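Notebook, bench 3.
Goal today: get a predicted structure for AP-1 complex subunit gamma from Sphaeramia orbicularis so we can plan the truncation constructs. The sequence was checked against the plasmid map this morning, with no discrepancies at the termini. Length recorded as 795 residues. Pasting the sequence as submitted so the record is complete.
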Amino acid sequence: MSPSVPLQEMIRAIRSARTQCEERGVIQRECAAIRAQFRQADNGGRSHNLAKLLYVHMLGYPAHFGQMECVRMIASPRYSEKRVGYLGAMMLLDEKQDASLLITNSIKNDLSHSSQYVQSLALCTLACMGSAEMCRDLAPEIDRLLRASNSYIKKKAALCAVHIVRKVHDLGELFAPAARSLLSEKNHGVLHGAVVLITELCERNPEALERFRKTVPDLVQIMKGLVISGYSPEHDVAGISDPFLQVRILRLLRILGHNNEAASDAMNDLLAQVATNTDSTKTVGNAVLYETVLTVLDIKSESGLRVLAVNILGRFLLNNDRNIRYIAMMSLQKIVGTDHIAVQRHRGTIVDCLKDPDASVKRRALELSLALVSASNIRSMMKELLIFLSSCPLELRAQAASGIFNAAERYAPSQRWHIDTILHVLTTAGGDVRDETVPNLIQLITTASELHCYTVHKLYRALLTDISQQSLVQVACWCIGEYGDLLLKGDCQETEPVQVTENDVLDALETVLQSHMSSPATRGFALTATMKLSTRITDNVDRIRSIVSIYGSCIDVELQQRAVEYNALFKKYDHMRAAVLERMPVIERNSPGHTNGESSGELVKEVQPVKVKEGDAAPTQQPANQVCDLLDLLGGSEEPLKPTSAQSGPAPGQPINTSNSSGGDLLDLLGGLEPVAFTPAPTVTVYEKNGVTLTLSCEKQSDSSMTVTLTASNSTDSDISSFTLQAAVPKSVQLHMKAPSGDSLPAHGTAKVTQTVVLNNPNKVNLKMRIRVSYTSRGSAFQDMVQVDSFPDSR
């Protein structure tokens, strides 16, 4: 290809290249030719070469070597070269390039040029790539051009001033007087630039906002002229007079009327006129109407005008264009809290949008439908939402289920309706619900004592129908274990009488245990339910014993441990089995951290922390709410029994704790040891900060063994959560920490958390203990370290 080929020929050669390598070869040869011609002192084809270089730049190839040529061409007196030079500067230069500073003087000279076209080139370049330094130097020139008599220059100067204000906020005051005077212009281009400039000034300066609120009557007058004006071929777009200017004015009115009653009153009539007279059959009209609606909803408008705005959005919901339906639902979502009644009128249309094939429209319709649920429409809305849940896309199923749960909890007309609704969701989308759904439903079932028979029958039938929904199966197993005797009676008045035998129930639970679809947690529920049934049936206890013994060698460690412990109940402690497996009491709601007072999935076992050095982070212990041992279940403890789990019996993965620091060792008690009178040990306060008090007491077990009891209380007026204690002792001392009684401290010291630590000091060294206290109070996390150098006299 010849070095002097025209631009069209170079484009044709590049497009005809069959491979990327061939294209690069063409461009490299042409760039080499352009470089050679740039070096020539007298080059008549400068603009021609720079134009070819700009095309190469548009293709993504390096063209930085043309920057200095742009600077030289901008300084040329010829308009044809200036035009290409300024175009090259806008494409090849930016404010980070040092070469951009070289054109500042040329731009300043061209802003005073006699030709309006040369002035416009300089204005466009400054507005495109002007740096903060260039804007400060040339701002007075732009202010002068804003007051010029030429409308062509004034509209470009206004847009250039917008760029300067964005770059240097302090220069906004310079352009404020000229910007206000531009509102009296008749040229629509100048008006458009003025409105954009005023909008930028108002958004960045509160003082300018107050000053320009006086221009609201002028803006209203301009807008009225556009609305009632006749056909103007110069500004008409699909029957709307200059919709671009109308949209800009409406946005500025929205800013000026926000939180200002006087400005809002001045524009109410105009907004009503625009909302009623604008044609909504065309996209252009819908754009103006949408801006009108946003303005009405953002200012202090009249109630009737707000209803009119909501009705316009309701019409948008019926539009065939999905984009219009989408923005309508986004706008309704923002105002559903303040204009709930007005939005409720369009509930049917919103619910119909749930059937839209577009996924984004469905998502917005679901969010809006959930926001419209109230006590008066809970039944009808829930019916529609449940229908949607059965056919909605997988990515929306979790959101829909969560929203239905929240709405049912807030507005449920009855407990039976609430239970039926949650069971319907679990049957339909049991695999997509949150983890807390199971304990929440269990808590609801325990409180509805009159519905226990109805619930266990319904869950039993659901279990026979489908065992793939893990959440549903877990709740069903729990209910069968707790209320299996009601299931076997078969005399429930709430449902059709069904005769269920003991073998039928055990077959169902054994199916869950053997199914490949059952998770380890679900098998834990089923095994515990099977064990519970051993005290509720009479003829199949041996079969239950056989089922439990099989899982004593299960590969799953948690399930194996549970089965071994249940086998121990059958063999060594069979006389205690009925008391241990009795029906769970009503589960009350506790602190927000333990919504249902349950500790599902937590391991209640003794934790042995690692010895730590000063400054090192101690390992985090898993908190446990309370530890109730077999003595507590039998009533051997002086303290009343408190429920700790929402599951039947111990939670899956939770071993049966057979010892308690305050109750003594169970095996020793069964061995016939005489009880020892308890004398309170002396206590000392080791920590007192932020309303949290930690006391320490000791009890000597032998010459080398000591039991330390740490007791924490909360004297503030707010609950404390995530409370944990960690301890470290010298290396020669053996430390054994038992599970804490809980991880939350209620306000005003209504309950305490205790932690028992057993110290074994065979070398009888001087005992020291470092304790780390961690907790969360009022949303803030706290962590402190205290050291105990001396212990109170032990008894």
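Residues 435-581 form one domain. The two ends are 104 Å apart (CA to CA).
Flagging this for group meeting.
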